[in-house]
Amino acid sequence: MTDPVLRWAEGAGTGVLLDGFHPLKHALRFGAEVPVAVTTDRSAALALAGELAADLVDTLGALLTEVTEETYASLVPRPHPTGVAALAVRPSRAGNLRALARTPRTAPVVVLDNPRNLGNAGAVIRLAAGFGATGVVTTGTLDPWHPTVVRGGAGLHFATAVERLAVEELPAGPVFALDPEGEDIRGTKLPDDAVLAFGSERNGLSAELRARADHLLALPMRPQVSSYNLATSVAMALYHWSVTGGASVTP
Ligand SMILES: C[S@@+](CC[C@H](N)C(=O)[O-])C[C@H]1O[C@@H](n2cnc3c(N)ncnc32)[C@H](O)[C@@H]1O
Asked: Which terms does the UniProt entry file under GO BP (predicted)?
């Protein structure tokens, strides 16, 4: 086996950093290709796997290479309490676009229209993975594969199709755009092929997205509260889909 530091150097330019045990666990569970994984304490990492991811003990046993604290610190921007880090191969855009375009869809696509906050985007990807959404599409300049988004997504970018697209390239399907001025979402059943769109933290939905929307839906909210946080709005809408249709979501 080649030196893990060399393999890390080979993958660092294009690989997705999995920063800690849990992102590595999630990425492996959802089929990520992980060419290199290091730990400062192999037996502690495998003990953690035994406790929290019995399904991955053998995989992690074969994958994890122990390195010194100094080597580990030289590979990651900041050390993680679990002392585990790995690089994964980013899924191809072509494959993600195929997944987003595939019909009939069994679960919605979430669209974040020009999101600004990297932490919100990560939290939304984690939600989409949990609900089995088909994918998360962002419009605008934010990179949904930015390392901070990946950190917020806890390794779950590999469990759903995550891509950036222009509004005119959004997947087919009825667009349900979420907006405080819309109709009460409680009167609407969200279909499995819904495109659920959410506006940016500061400005809400763009004119382009509004023009593309088939329905404008509001989440219940008391008068005098202006809006909810973006990620919590996605959580409520996906939960609403899961209870009104959402046949594919099982606890
Ligand atoms: C922080 S809010 C945006 C607030 C922004 N100032 C505005 O004018 O809409 C981010 C996004 O969350 C969703 N959202 C927040 N509260 C909502 C509500 N009560 N009903 C429906 N969507 C909501 C919308 O998609 C909104 O564009």
From this structure: methylation; RNA processing
**Which of the listed residues 227, 230, 232, 238 should we mutate to test ligand 1's pocket, taking the one with most ligand atoms within 8 A of CB?**
227
Query: What do you get for the CA distance between the two ends of the chain, in Å?
Result: 40
From ligand 1's centre to the CA of 68, what distance in Å? Answer: 47
User: For residue 91, what are its two tokens?
Assistant: 């899924």
**Residue 80 token pair:** 């993680």
Tell me how many domains the chain contains: 2
Does residue 249 fall inside a structural domain? no
In a domain, residue 134? The reply is yes
CATH number of the domain at 50, please.
Answer: 3.30.1330.30
Domain boundary among 88, 117, 146: 88
Question: How far apart (Å, rounded) are the C-alpha atoms in residues 50 and 238?
Answer: 32
At which of 88, 106, 123 does a domain end? Answer: 88
Q: Give the pocket of ligand 1 (CB within 6 Å).
A: 178-180, 198-199, 201-202, 204-205, 218-219, 221, 227-230, 233
pLDDT at 11 over 90: no
Q: Residues 194-249: pLDDT tens digits?
A: 999 999 999 999 999 999 999 999 999 999 999 999 999 999 999 999 999 765 66
Same domain, 71 and 154: no
Do 103 and 184 share a domain, yes or no? yes
Cβ-in-10-Å burial (0-12, 13-18, 19+) of 126 comes to: buried
